[in-house]
Amino acid sequence: MITIFGIPLQAFLGQLLLGLVNGSFYAILSLGLAVIFGLLNVINFAHGALYMFGAFLAWMGLSYFGLNYWVMLALAPVIVGLFGILIEKFLLKHLYKLDHLYGLLLTFGITLLMEGLFRSFYGVSGQPYSTPEALRGATNLGFMVLPNYRAWVVLASVVVCLVTWFVIERTRLGALLRAGTENPKLVEAFGVNVPLMITLTYAFGVALAGFAGVLAAPILQISPLMGSNLIIVVFAVVVIGGMGSILGAIVTGLGLGVIEGLTKVFWPEASSTVVFIIMAIVLLLRPAGLFGKEK
Amino acid sequence: MKLRTLSASLMLAGFGLVSQSALANISDDVIRIGFITDMASVYSDIDGAGGIEAARMAIADAGGEINGKKIELIFADHQNKADVAAAKAREWFDQQKIDMLMGGTNSGVNLALAGIAAEKKKVFMAVGAAASDLTGSQCSPYTAHWAYDTVALARGTGSAIVKAGGKSWYFLTADYAFGHALERDTANVVKAAGGEIKGQVRAPLNSADFSSFLLQAQSSGAQILGLANAGGDTINSIKAANEFGIGKTMKMAGLLIFINDIHSLGLNVTQGMQFTDGWYWDQNDETRAWSAKFEAKVKRKPSMVQAGDYSAVSYYLQAVKATGSDDADTVMKWLKSTKINDMFAKNGYLREDGRMVHDMFLMEVKKPSESKGPWDYYKQLAVLPGESVYTTLAESTCKLIKK
Question: Between A and B, how many CB-CB pairs are < 8 A?
Answer without folding.
Answer: 106
